[in-house]
Design a protein that fits this description.
two-stranded antiparallel sheet, single chain, EC 1.1.1.44, seven-stranded mixed sheet, gluconate utilization, binds NADPH dihydro-nicotinamide-adenine-dinucleotide phosphate, alpha/beta, 6-PGluconate_DH-like_C_sf
Length: 477
C-alpha cells in the first residue's frame, strides 16, 4: 500500500480528521463500516487531498504503507473493540492502531495489553476540540509506546493546533496515559464551565444585570488574565437573543445541565486515587443537582431561605471582586486536576510531563487559555513542584485575590446564592494551607470506635488508647 495513514470511522469526527491529514499532504486511506460515508467523504471533499477509499477492512489495511498506521474514530465502547479485532486480523507486528475516540483509560490499558501480545502497537489518544478542532487543528494527547510515537508523532503534530508555532500534541506516556489525560482535561472543563456559570449568577444577583450586560463584562475579562475559549463563548451565548421570543437566549434554556460521563469518570478515579478534586466533583454534582427534577420541585418555595437582599454599592468593585474570586477558584481547580495527573502518573509509572500537558492545552481544546502558559512556566521553574498553587506566580494570584474571594463567597452565602465551586475551592484553599487540621479529631474518633490507631506529633510509632478500659495508651508493634 501507499497511504501514509488510514482513518476508519467516518462520522463527523473521523471524516474531519481524515480531511485534516489530507490537507497536510498525507495520502489518507479511508474506511467506514457502511460504505456510504466513505463515498460521501471522497465525493464532497476529494479536493482536500489524496484519499484512498476501501470498502473492506482487508483492503483498507492493504492500502497502508508499512509500518501501517490506522486511526479508529468510531463510537466509543463495543464498536471500538470490534474494529480493533478486525484491523488486528489483517495487520502485522510493528503496525500501529490508534484509538482517537473517547475511550475510558482502563479500556485503553486492556486493549494495549492484548495488542502488545500480538506485536502490534496500540495508541490510545485523546483528541479535544470537537468537530472544528478535528478539521482545523485539535489538541492531541497520544499514549502508547515511544517507538510508535516516532512514526506517528510527526503526523499528529502536523495536524494539531499550533500556539506560537508550537504543536498542541506531545507524547504523553505508555498505555492509558493519553486517554487518562484527556479525561482529566474534560474534568477540568466541567469545573471551568461551572465557575463561569457561578460568576454569571453572582453578577446577575449582585448587580441585577441583564444577560447581555454580563456578556459585555465577560468580553472585557477575556482581554485579561481570564482570556480563554470558554469565557469567549460564554460572552457570545449571553449576548445572544432568542429569535422567537426576543428574550435573552440564556433565559429560555431549560436549566438542567446534561453530561456524557467524562466528569464522572474523573471524579470516580480521583476517589480511587484519594486526590481531592473538589472543583471537578462539585461541578459534576452541580449538573446532577440541576437535573434533580422532583427534588427541586419539592424544595422550590418550600425550603426557607432567610436570605439577605443583595446591596452592591460599588458596581465596578463588585465586578472586580467576582473576577478575582473566579480566577482564584480556577487556579484551585487546575491545581487539583494536576494533582490527579501526578498521582495517576506515579501509580501507573507513566512519567507524564505536567508542563508539557499545559502546553498542549493552550490551543485546539475546549479549556484553551492564556493562563495555561503560567502552568507550563511553573513546572519549568520547578519540575517536581508538589502543588501548583504553591508556585510563586499562583501564590501572587492568591495574594491579590483571596480577600475578594472571601468577600464574594460570604456575600453569596448570606444572600442565598449557590456557589458550589467558588465556595468549595476556598475551603480547599484554607484546608491545604492550614497549620493544623481537625483531621486529628477524626483519628481520635476512629481510634475510639474502631481501634484504628493514630500517630503522635511528639513520638514515632503507632498508638491505640484503651478507651473502654483505663484509657492508657498502647504502642503498637
Ligand atoms: P459517533 O460516536 O456517532 O460514531 C459513529 C461512527 O462509529 C460511524 O462511523 C459508525 O459507523 C461507527 N461505528 C459504530 N459502531 C460501530 C461498530 N460496531 N463497528 C464499526 N463501526 C462502528 O461518531 P463521532 O464522529 O461523533 O465520534 C467518533 C468518536 O470521537 C467517538 O469515540 C466520540 O466519543 C469521539 N468524539 C470526540 C469529540 C471530541 O471533541 N474529541 C467530539 C465528538 C466525538 P456507521 O457509519 O457504519 O454506523
Amino acid at each position: 500500500g501507499t497511504a501514509d495513514i488510514g482513518v476508519t470511522g467516518l462520522a463527523v469526527m473521523g471524516s474531519n480528521l481524515a480531511r485534516n491529514f489530507a490537507r497536510h499532504g498525507y495520502t489518507v486511506a479511508v474506511h467506514n463500516r457502511s460504505y456510504g460515508k466513505t463515498e460521501k467523504l471522497v465525493a464532497e471533499h476529494g479536493d482536500d487531498g489524496t484519499f484512498v477509499p476501501s470498502e473492506s477492512v482487508e483492503d483498507f489495511v492493504a492500502s497502508l504503507s508499512k509500518p501501517r498506521v490506522a486511526v479508529i474514530m468510531v463510537k466509543a465502547g463495543a464498536g471500538t473493540d470490534a474494529v480493533i479485532d478486525q484491523l488486528a486480523e489483517h495487520m502485522e507486528p510493528g503496525d500501529i492502531i490508534v484509538d482517537a475516540g473517547n475511550a475510558h483509560f482502563p479500556d485503553t490499558i486492556r486493549r494495549e495489553n492484548a495488542l502488545r501480545e500480538k506485536g502490534l502497537h496500540f495508541v490510545g489518544s485523546g483528541v479535544s476540540g470537537g468537530e472544528e478542532g478535528a478539521l482545523n487543528g485539535p489538541s492531541i494527547m497520544p499514549g502508547g509506546t515511544r517507538e510508535s510515537y516516532d512514526r506517528l508523532g510527526p503526523m499528529l503534530e502536523d495536524i494539531s493546533a499550533k500556539v506560537d508555532g508550537v504543536p498542541c500534541c506531545t507524547y504523553i506516556g505508555p498505555d492509558g496515559a493519553g486517554h487518562f489525560v484527556k479525561m482529566v482535561h474534560n474534568g477540568i472543563e466541567y469545573a471551568d464551565m461551572q465557575l463561569i456559570a457561578e460568576a454569571y449568577d453572582l453578577l446577575r444577583h449582585g448587580l441585577g444585570a441583564s444577560a447581555a450586560e454580563i456578556g459585555d463584562i465577560f468580553e472585557e475579562w477575556n482581554a485579561g488574565d481570564l482570556e480563554s475559549f470558554l469565557i469567549e463563548i460564554s460572552a457570545e451565548v449571553l449576548k445572544h437573543t432568542d429569535p422567537q421570543t426576543g428574550k435573552a437566549f440564556v433565559d429560555i434554556i431549560l436549566d438542567r445541565a446534561e453530561q456524557k460521563g467524562t466528569g464522572r469518570w474523573t471524579v470516580q478515579n480521583a476517589l480511587d486515587l484519594g486526590v481531592p478534586v473538589t472543583g471537578i466533583a462539585e461541578a459534576t454534582f452541580a449538573r446532577a443537582l440541576s437535573g434533580s427534577v422532583p427534588q427541586r420541585e419539592a424544595a422550590r418555595g418550600t425550603l426557607p431561605a432567610h436570605a439577605g437582599k443583595w446591596d452592591v454599592t460599588d458596581r465596578d468593585a463588585f465586578i472586580e471582586d467576582v473576577r478575582l474570586a473566579l480566577y482564584a477558584s480556577k487556579v484551585v481547580a487546575y491545581s487539583q486536576g494536576f494533582d490527579q495527573i501526578t498521582a495517576a502518573s506515579e501509580e501507573n509509572g507513566w512519567g507524564i510531563d505536567r508542563g508539557a500537558m499545559a502546553r498542549i492545552w493552550r490551543g485546539g481544546c475546549i479549556i484553551r487559555a492564556r493562563f495555561l502558559n503560567r502552568i507550563t512556566e511553573a513546572y519549568e521553574r520547578t519540575p517536581e513542584l508538589p502543588l501548583l498553587l504553591a508556585d510563586e506566580f499562583f501564590t501572587d494570584v492568591m495574594d491579590k485575590g483571596v480577600t475578594a474571594w472571601r468577600s464574594i463567597v460570604s456575600q453569596a452565602a448570606l444572600n442565598g446564592v449557590p456557589t458550589p465551586v467558588f465556595a468549595s475551592s476556598l475551603s480547599y484553599y484554607d484546608g491545604i494551607r492550614a497549620e493544623r487540621l481537625p483531621a486529628a479529631l477524626i483519628q481520635g474518633q476512629r481510634d475510639f470506635f474502631g481501634a484504628h490507631t493514630y500517630q503522635r506529633v511528639d513520638a514515632e510509632g503507632t498508638f491505640h488508647t484503651l478507651w473502654s478500659a483505663d484509657r492508657s495508651e498502647e504502642k503498637q508493634a
